[in-house]
Amino acid sequence: MKKVMSLLVAVLAMLAVSSCGGGKSPADIEKSIYTQFQKGNYEKGLDIYFANIDQGDEAKDQGQKQVDAQIKALAEKVKASAAQGFEIKAGVKSFEILEETIAEDGETATVQTKIIYGDGSEDTQSSKYVKRGGKWKIVFGGK
Length: 143
Fold this sequence. Notes:
Helix content: 40-55%
Number of strands: 4
Mean pLDDT: 75
Largest sheet: 4 strands, antiparallel
Number of helices: 5
Strand order of the largest sheet: 1-2-3-4
């Protein structure tokens, strides 16, 4: 019984560590965002998006607090217009990750996602990612 409990604790510890987000691929981040959109949780999906923005050299140049404030202000504007846009298209019916391409150097990636809206219209989005501190971050504006 003691061995079973020890094994159970070890498995739970591994699951807890692996779910902390450090090992998320760019496609995993996209899935998290679009899953929330599909559920109608537009604000939560955008929270995930903005939490994964690469601040890069801009944060060093302007100061982290100023960049955080700019991102927060932009996030509020985007949340309001995105929710309205999704409602016009009757929400996100489904999505599919078409392709995840990670550069040979392992430092940049692109994810192609197909979105099918509730009104039947479709769109394909391309998101660019960069690896910072061992974690994938979204390149805002796809630069």
